[in-house]
Amino acid sequence: MLATMILAQALASAGFVAAAIKHPGDTVNDGSHRDDLSIRASRLTDIIRLVGFLLDDWKDKVSIDRARIGFFGFSRGGYTGLARAGGKPDFRRIALYCPESDKTPACEQLRNSEIPPDPPQDARIKAAVGADAGPTYPFTSENLAGIRIPLQVWRSEFLAGNEDDVAGIARVAAADPASRTLVSWCGLVIGRSCRRPQRRRQQVLRGSAPTQQALIAPSFTTSSTRALSAFPRASR
User: Fold this and answer.
1) What residue ranges do the domains of the chain occupy?
2) What is the pLDDT of residue 65?
């Protein structure tokens, strides 16, 4: 959460209205619903409510340009961003990763056909950035075809969570290469920095990305803010 706050503060200093959200039951301090299938859907409605509050009820709502709403998310937040950008996650695909020995709530709910309804779409978001999005297995090239806004996909050298999937992130970026940008970058994991050359197999089409330090380091804040600032402006 500290890193999120620092990044939000940096974006605000760059002239953005930045809002960070806590998803009930799926936070650092409250993981009571983290393994529930329902959290995959409730995260998406949380964002709809957040955008609605900022545009309709926030005391400084007049300062927001409604035509320039952007989204940034890391890990599960990156998954949330893919869905908010127009992707339609197929929750049934999670069953492919549920062996009989897996008794987590999500797998048990799938076995009982307790599938969340398809989340509503939200056309108010005009550009999105997903960093090490995960889990990616609910997404296929077919259900990612609904993304019609500029999308930048960040893939770090050191993936920070066990749900982050290198192949899945590449699949997301490759679903529509003309409108996606796959950016390779270093230093996502707190306390680690990149010491070997970065392998870049994808051309960076738009924007830039952090290249050196850990998530909460000043150089990350500066370069990531620059990348996030440049991308939505270039995408108009």
Assistant:
1) 2-88+118-234
2) 93
